[in-house]
Design brief:
Radius of gyration: 34 Å
Structural class: alpha/beta
Shape: elongated
Number of strands: 17
Strand order of the largest sheet: 1-2-3-4-5
């Protein structure tokens, strides 16, 4: 829901609700910093909300649930709010011109930056990302319900404003409650997934963008130079007063000496002031050198700190490249039972996404890979089956791995147990040609993706569950007949079990050059079917898959090429 027609009264009410939140002081310090002195440099919260509503950057679910988005460099959106933007950005000038305090703070920050250690890349990211990327400028939500709907609306509004190829920076200090900070940290994963409560998180775009031109940063060395020059000029003023008094006996005030030095910086003399001593005149000549010297020192400081900041940003930019080029794992299921098992095991806040045609659940970044879940129809012949849906999903989302998981029937009940998991290292497609004299098998026998086979070879099953690695039958026939099941076991003596969708997964993935595998839990024995073990089988299969995902088994190794 947008807030373009939101009035000042509603914005005032929302600001009051935010000020009552647990982390309100932190949010106000972030949104309205005292950058230039004692006064706030940004407009009040209610006016920022009102401006965002006029620019359609406000995601409004009520005064207790809203998000303000901000464009890179806080540029104005449209023409209607340019006046509000000027008031917001120049609030310190609207309130008071405390320039002396501002200069003092700038010099102090310059000295402090030299004494401190170099900032960590994540600190650079927290400072830089909200300026360079679209960002979450304010986020306020109270209560346990409705957070997922609010974040879903935020993603849709971001796509509407900037397209589906932009990242969203989510600074923790812009969020008013601890619960919402934790939820946003999961929804928008940090640049490094193992950081608990990162200073800034990034909601990755649907499509990889082209990064904008880097903003050249200036250093603090120039301000240190200005401070030293100021100290030298003050000292020179005292010397000039003493020299003039000792030579002519005419008293020269300290204020007059400072005025003369100020004029000498521009190679001039003030009216009526003419030093008589050699030392004073020599000092005036030396002071005239400070102006070109200041220009040269400033240029050198800019060049020096440009290289310095570039070195600091190198690791941060590498992390951004890794995040934007992060691999995707597409999980495919065929039934509602299988889908609910995956959603329960992921423990993520799923976001439904319909942009690619076939709907998917975006489960976020888990184990440093982006995980998607798609539910297709059972079998391979229906219009929403895997055979027709998976090519569309692969083309739009470009996953690196496709994992089909869910339930299957077992063929070795003397050794296997209901709930055990079969990893289909090898898939045997059942395609029988039945003649008068013989029955011939025309189905393919293929091996799953070698990277996936390697990883599932070290998968850890849940307690009391066994993992069976081997051949899995795939046939678009629901097997629930003892003689048919016995015939399959006699014909395919190496088979561990059977299912209905793997053949379609194999066909679509191979055509797209994507690695695939089928992992399913045993829910019955292909005869006298009952549904009591389906939840157990689907849950165990999801546990095996997510154990590897969370162990970062699907992260591309260092130096490995990207597609």
């Amino acid at each position: 829901m947008g807030g373009r027609r939101l009035g000042p009264g509603a914005c005032w009410e929302a600001a009051r609700a935010l000020h009552a939140a647990a982390m309100a002081d932190d949010v106000v310090a972030f949104s309205r910093p005292r950058t230039h002195g004692f006064f706030r440099t940004r407009a009040p919260i209610w006016l920022q909300i009102f401006r965002a509503a006029r620019e359609d950057r406000l995601v409004w679910h009520g005064p207790d649930s809203f998000v303000v988005l901000r464009a890179p460099a806080d540029r104005a959106i449209g023409r209607t709010a340019r006046g509000l933007r000027w008031i917001d950005r120049q609030w310190s000038l609207v309130v008071a011109a405390d320039q002396i305090t501002a200069l003092t703070q700038m010099v102090w920050r310059g000295l402090r930056s030299l004494a401190r250690d170099a900032p960590r890349p994540l600190e650079v990211a927290a400072e830089t990302l909200p300026f360079e990327q679209w960002s979450m400028a304010l986020c306020h939500h109270v209560g346990a319900d409705g957070a997922a709907a609010l974040l879903d609306s935020v993603e849709r509004r971001l796509v509407a404003l900037a397209g589906d190829d932009v990242a969203l920076a989510c600074p923790a200090r812009a969020i008013s409650t601890v619960e919402m900070r934790d939820r946003v940290a999961v929804w928008a994963d940090g640049l490094r997934g193992n950081i608990e409560r990162p200073e800034v998180s990034v909601r990755l775009p649907r499509r990889r963008p082209v990064r904008a031109h880097r903003v050249m940063e200036t250093g603090a060395f120039f301000f240190v130079y200005l401070l030293l020059v100021a100290v030298m000029l003050v000292s020179m003023a005292s010397s000039v007063v003493q020299w003039e008094r000792s030579a002519s006996g005419t008293p020269m005030s300290y204020a007059t000496a400072l005025e003369w030095i100020w004029y000498r910086l521009a190679w001039q003399d003030p009216p009526g002031v003419h030093p008589v001593t050699f030392w004073s005149r020599s000092t005036g000549v030396m002071i005239g050198v400070f102006l070109p010297l200041t220009v040269l020192v400033g240029a050198g400081a800019i060049a020096h700190y440009r290289r310095y900041r570039s070195a600091l940003r190198a690791e941060y930019l590498t992390m951004m490249d890794d995040a934007l080029g992060r691999d995707r794992v597409l999980l495919v299921v065929a039934t509602e039972v299988e889908r609910e098992a995956v959603l329960a095991r992921s423990r993520a806040e799923p976001i439904r996404d319909f942009s690619g045609g076939h709907p998917v659940y975006r489960l976020g970044v888990i184990g440093d890979v982006e995980v998607l879940l798609a539910q297709c129809g059972p079998g391979v012949t229906g219009p929403v089956s895997v055979a027709y849906s998976l090519p569309e999903l692969i083309e739009f989302w470009s996953p690196r791995f496709v994992i089909m998981l869910g339930i299957c029937f077992g063929l070795r009940e003397q050794e296997q147990s209901l709930g055990d998991v079969i990893v289909g290292r090898r898939l045997q497609v059942v395609n029988l040609r039945v003649g008068d004299e013989e029955t011939r098998d025309r189905g393919d026998a293929i091996t799953a993706g070698h990277r996936l086979v390697e990883r599932f070879a070290v998968a850890v099953p849940p307690l009391g569950v066994r993992i069976w690695q081997g051949t899995l039958l795939s046939w678009d026939v629901l097997v629930d007949f003892a003689p048919l099941r016995a015939a399959l076991r006699d014909r395919y003596r190496d088979a561990l079990g059977g299912e209905m969708e793997g053949a379609a997964v194999y066909a679509a993935a191979v055509r797209a050059g994507v690695e695939w595998i089928v992992v399913k839990g045993i829910c019955d024995w292909g005869q006298d079917k009952i549904d009591t073990a389906q939840v157990l089988a689907a849950t165990n299969a999801a546990a095996v898959v997510f154990d590897l995902i969370e162990a970062r088994a699907f992260v591309r190794g260092q130096g490995a090429p990207r597609p």
